[in-house]
Design goal:
Its EC number is 2.1.1.233. GO terms for molecular function: protein C-terminal leucine carboxyl O-methyltransferase activity. It comes from Hypocrea atroviridis (strain ATCC 20476 / IMI 206040) (Trichoderma atroviride). It is a single chain. This protein is α/β, with parallel strands linked by helices. It has one domain: Rossmann fold (3-Layer(aba) Sandwich). It contains 13 helices and eight strands. The protein has an eight-stranded mixed sheet, sandwiched between helices. Strand 5, helix 7 and strand 6 form a beta-alpha-beta unit. The longest helix is centred in the first third of the chain and has 29 residues. The protein binds S-adenosylmethionine (SAM).
């Protein structure tokens, strides 16, 4: 939703956003055969992070979100950053606020260890993290009673290297992810030891992760409650690859949860247009192309080993989770004339959260 790389009403109108289209499709190489097509597709998928970063900054600049770090990940070389339409800004706001709500609830829960002892450490693994700013926001908050946080981000090596370069060039980012080290298993892996936890950035194609995979993730803890986050990432994988990635973690970590944000294909004309718009941009989302309904994803997660699965579309989250005062504030920012368009668009994106074991008690009350 915040990424125009994901199909939306604007692309149905033939435009990707209010501003210029930027940073799409990074240098697709020549060559022939399925390998070079695969690499070209990977490069296109890597480019979707630029769209996500631009959308985040648009929502920040318009007052929807407060995030002092978003601007550092958007290039200002081509002039002022693009502005998204109000409907997209509201989507970015709702999705970010909803994931923040689940993350904060997970982190603020004090119990969940064996025999109810306090849990001293919690872990987040962000799949396809791109240039997400959440770790900067979390590590800069020194909240009393917060558990020690181990935060992993995984993305292609080109993206993890780019993130490191940005962090090293911006003092306010470098001071949060301080005490950095690049001596890890892979060239583009790097890590940091902020005062209140540990941070790891892994340059890795997540399709290498599966139940039987021998790939290691330095710093991964298997003994602490772990939240796996996929904000528009697993949807680019086949169903089998996506299952394999989740099983990599569930087969190793007993207390685990997952939060997935992605478009949902409801098999209606809107979804069909989404799929063909993406295909025109050489973007394929196997998860989306498969005709399915909202319950299908919950059934899949239960099959993988999660016990409880809940989900809401973004329009339902806006209605149920955003309180009246906050709705008024957001409404005042730009206004939103296209209420039906909002409901149609936001009804085709969902957040699903699913968990098993200890450390997620607070989530039982969230619905
Ligand atoms: C739409 S962006 C979302 C970025 C970030 N999660 C956010 O919401 O701001 C999708 C990200 O998933 C990453 N990604 C997709 N497939 C991947 C794979 N197989 N391995 C690693 N990263 C992948 C892309 O490189 C890209 O950074």
């Amino acid at each position: 939703m915040s990424a125009p790389s994901i199909p939306n009403l604007l692309s149905l109108r033939g435009r990707g956003g209010r501003g210029r289209s930027r940073g799409r499709g990074q240098g697709l190489g020549g060559g022939s055969g399925s390998e070079s097509r695969g690499k070209a597709h990977d490069a296109t998928i890597q480019g979707t992070d630029t769209d996500a970063a631009v959308s985040r900054l648009s929502a920040v600049d318009m007052g929807y979100l407060s995030d002092p770090y978003a601007r550092y990940f958007v290039s200002s070389l081509g002039g002022p950053p693009a502005r998204r339409f109000p409907i997209i800004n509201r989507g970015t706001y709702t999705r970010t606020a909803a994931i923040d709500h689940l993350v904060h609830s997970f982190l603020s829960e004090a119990t969940g260890g064996a025999q109810g002892q306090a849990v001293a450490t919690k872990q987040i693994v962000s799949l396809g993290a791109g240039t997400d700013t959440r770790p900067f926001r979390l590590f800069s908050q020194q909240q009393q009673g917060r558990p020690n946080l181990v935060y992993h981000e995984i993305d292609f090596s080109v993206t993890s290297a780019k993130k490191l370069k940005t962090v090293e060039g911006v003092p306010s980012l470098a001071s949060i992810l301080s005490d950095r080290s690049t001596r890890e298993t892979r060239d583009s892996d790097w890590s940091s030891k902020p005062p209140n936890g540990e941070y790891y950035c892994h340059g890795l194609d997540i399709r290498q992760l599966s139940h039987a995979s021998t790939t290691t993730l330095p710093g991964l803890r298997t003994d602490v409650p772990t939240l796996i986050l996929s904000e528009c990432c697993l949807c680019y994988l086949s169903r089998e690859e996506s299952d394999g990635v989740l099983e990599y973690f569930t087969s190793r970590i007993p207390n685990a949860a997952v939060v997935i944000y992605e478009p949902v294909h409801l098999g209606d004309p809107f979804s069909d247009t989404m799929v063909s718009n993406l295909a025109a941009r050489n973007i394929h989302m196997p998860n989306l192309e498969r005709r399915r309904n909202e319950a299908d994803e919950a059934a899949r997660l239960k099959r993988i080993g999660f016990e409880t699965a809940r989900q809401l579309t973004i329009d339902r989250i806006w209605s149920k989770w955003v309180n009246a005062e906050e709705k008024e504030r957001v409404d005042r920012l730009e206004g939103l004339d296209e209420v039906e368009e909002w409901q149609l668009l936001a009804g085709h994106y969902m957040i699903i959260w699913s968990f098993r074991g200890e450390g997620f008690e607070g989530w039982r009350a969230i619905e």
